[in-house]
Amino acid sequence: MATAIVLREFGGPERLRCEEVALADPGPGELRVRHTAVGVNFHDVYVRSGLYRTLPLPGIPGIEASGVIEAVGPGVADFAEGDRICYVTGSYGAYASARNLPSSLALRLPAGVSDEIAAAGILKGLTACMLLRYEYPVAAGDTVLIHAAAGGVGQLLCRWARHLGATVIATVGDARKEAIALACGAHHVLTSQDAGLATRINEITRGRGVSVAYDSVGRDSFQISLAALADFGRLVNFGQSSGPVPPFEVSQLAAKSNALSRPIVFHYLRDATRRHRLASETFEALADGVLAVDIGLRLPLTDAAEAHRALEARETTGSTILIP
Description:
Elements: E1 2-7, E2 16-21, E3 30-40, H1 42-49, E4 64-72, E5 84-88, E6 98-102, E7 107-108, H2 115-135, E8 143-146, H3 152-163, E9 167-172, H4 178-183, E10 188-191, H5 197-204, E11 210-215, H6 222-228, E12 229-237, E13 259-261, H7 265-269, H8 272-287, E14 295-300, H9 304-312, E15 319-323
Parallel strand pairs: 8-9, 8-11, 9-10, 11-12, 12-13, 14-15
Antiparallel strand pairs: 1-2, 3-4, 3-6, 3-15, 4-5, 5-7
């Protein structure tokens, strides 16, 4: 048996219920993993609310975790009992004390990366790597705009973009989060409530605009991001914490020959070679101190509903994890 957080119908945080579930022996190609830490993401909120109808109900949410292998199924040669691993999956099931996992998803944890840091940072780290190294390869001399810079991914983007030599313009939800973005390497920090936000970005860039805008906020920031782009600039929308982006005329991109993308990290992780390359770059950045994962909230697995409530209320900074 395992303790799990089960979602039986879409709705508010109270829909997340703690239950005991049966756990079979690992099948061919599977690992039995005892979780030591579970990551909480806005993706989980979208799933729970029903905005994303990607988890068949009843189901166990959660897309990233770390843990220790307790048993190995037939045909698994690359892992053994006692190995420390982490993983990201689009098939859910991480909100549990233990689970069976396809061995192909497991990423072996280096000695210098703790279980908690892995659970708090692997999805966010892989996402930051995808955004900065592949969606738009940031280089010295670029100016980048990063929304929600005090959040888990935002902090990593600020640190990594500055390390790559870019000038970082960050936005945060309120003044108390400005210090967080500055500590993570932002050169300029603006609050998203500022009515003159687009004008301030224009002033900072001396009218040139930004090379790339990384936007996980969506509805409330999309037009600001678009207006902030330089000629040939790219808007990378990778989330919608304020709501979906309304339909817009694609001809708006023509004003400055801009580009728009909406990447999903799971698509990048489908290919094993790319998945391990992204993981290697992310673990290296963590080990070298380029990335530092801030765990802002730790809660017991049984308090998953409270974690969702705090995340939706934007009361958190950094990453949130659940401890089974």
